[in-house]
Design a protein that fits this description.
3 helices, alpha+beta
Length: 174
Amino acid sequence: MKRPIILHPDPRLKKTSLPVEDLTDELRTLADDLLDTMYHAPGIGLASPQVGILQRLIVLDCVKLDNEAPRPLIMFNPEIVASSEETSVYEEGCLSMPEQFADVTRPAEVQVRWIDRDGNEQNEEMSGLWATCVQHEIDHLDGKLFIDYLKPLKRQLITRKMVKFKRERAREKA
């Protein structure tokens, strides 16, 4: 089921999410809903705070080529256990900030540990777009947005554009 995505600025996007203590059917359904919402948006990652649920759950699928099979990942309690000193710069966007993009520098490679949909611990080294995406989504769980990496002026500019966007969207729905 597709869920509505919360748009910045919204205080819920700045809160820290709680660890998943018990993997319930309700949480598995939420994970499936997040994937549906992400694919429909369309996006390559989504965190549960973006749909108003403060649990440590993210989904991602960074496969972009049509001839490649999708690789949806569901991650409960994801954490970065190691990261490279080498960095990379990607132009990041966010489903909570439509049409807003900026270059963000992050570690080029990360090792991530998480619990999968079946309750098994997983561990994987990620690089390239996957590394950027997983770091971006884990940031959401800690109440951090990609614009928090930007200089104050650029961050304020994007926030003002989003306030205007939300105002216009509210008028359209009225």
